[in-house]
Amino acid sequence: MKSTTSLKLLLLTFFLMGELSYAQVKIGAKVGYSVGRITDNSDNIYTEDYKSTSGVDVGIMFEFPVSDLFSLQTEILYTQRGGDRTGMQPIPTAALEDFGSVDQLNYMLSLQGKGPVDDLNPMYADFNNISNLNYIEIPIMGKLGWGETWRFYVEAGPYIGFLVNASQNTSGTSLITLDAAGQDPLIVANPNYDPSNPSSGPLWVPVPPQSFDAETDTKDELNTLNFGFHAGTGLIRKIADKHEVFVGFRGSWGAKSLQKDEVFGDSHVGGLIFSLGYMFTLE
User: Fold this and answer.
1) More confident of the two residues 270 and 9
2) CB atoms closer than 10 angstroms to residue 199
3) Whole-model pTM?
4) Residue 3 Cα distances to 6, 78, 219, 225, 255, angstroms
5) What is the pLDDT of residues 23-60, one digit of tens each?
6) In a 10 Å sphere around its CB, with 0-12 CB exposed, 13-18 middle and 19+ buried, how is residue 123 labelled?
7) Residues 35, 191: Cα–Cα separation, whole Å
8) CB-based contact 81:90 (threshold 8 Å)
9) What is the dihedral angle through the alpha carbons of 174, 82, 266, 11, rounded to the nearest 10 degrees?
10) Cα dihedral 37→41→44→50 (10° resolution)
11) Cβ-contact 212, 86 below 8 angstroms
């Protein structure tokens, strides 16, 4: 329902823009540095403790003045968002397939009186995990501005975003444990164990540290459509009759959950963007 409302709002805004005089239109481009963040208020074990990552925001802009004070502005942006998590964290069951059959693993755990392992009761490891999300975003902004040669402005409005690609980049080497504290390592039968030879070691030994170096395509696990809200401010400098440059600061917040499966969280993506741009008035 929310996504349908956002689409209707975008179509209505485009219609209103079409009613404005072509001679008033400004066209421009901008490039920005973004600090992206994944947040989740549900304290889900898969999405907690993510830190900010940096990226770029680039795109084109169309501004339609309505009066000296107010204008409508739409943009087509390529945006990079994401988050970075380091330390003990859960291993999704699908990722365990890299280490062998999950059914075999659960059978081995049952012999030890432990398990079974699933996405709600996962195993853990200490590694670095970077989530990279790239979107095409189309914001529709209402813009208020004051001044002539130097013009201060504030802007706000909704946006709709389309996920282009998504990946999870993991790195590091770690023991695999059955608890988040890292105190209960995964153990397997000792291949050198000989009950007649005490020096052969114990029956069960920890699995050696495993490499988590990998890049995984996660687009199919995430919602393709996103929508939310942009708000910002900035300063415009007119440099000629039809030419102006600007610097802007904007905050972005996504209203739709990233994950298709709520087992893996109810997180939202956002960011802070610092931009430089240029605008040209058409006649």
Assistant:
1) 270
2) 6
3) 0.84
4) 5, 20, 19, 8, 10
5) 479 999 999 999 988 888 888 999 988 999 999 999 99
6) buried
7) 49
8) no
9) -160
10) 20
11) no
Q: Are 193 and 202 in contact (CB under 8 A)?
A: yes
Cα distance between residue 91 and residue 56, in whole Å = 29
Integer Cα distance of 96 and 172 in angstroms? 16
The predicted-structure confidence for 122-166, as pLDDT tens digits, reads as follows 999 999 999 999 999 999 999 999 998 999 999 999 999 999 999
Return the CATH number at 52.
Answer: 2.40.160.20
Q: Which amino acid is at 269?
A: V
The answer to whether residues 63 and 28 touch, using CB atoms and an 8 Å cutoff, is: yes
Q: Name the residue range of residue 235's domain.
A: 2-281
Beta bridge partners of 137: 77, 161
pLDDT in tens, 135-146: 999 999 999 999
Q: Regarding beta strands 214-217 and 187-189, do their DSSP bridges make them parallel or antiparallel, or are they unpaired?
A: unpaired
| Dist CA 86 CA 140 (whole Å) | 36
How many structural domains compose the chain?
A: 1
Terminal Cα distance for the chain, rounded: 40
- Number of residues that this document lists for the chain: 283
- C-alpha to C-alpha distance for 48 and 114, rounded to whole angstroms: 26
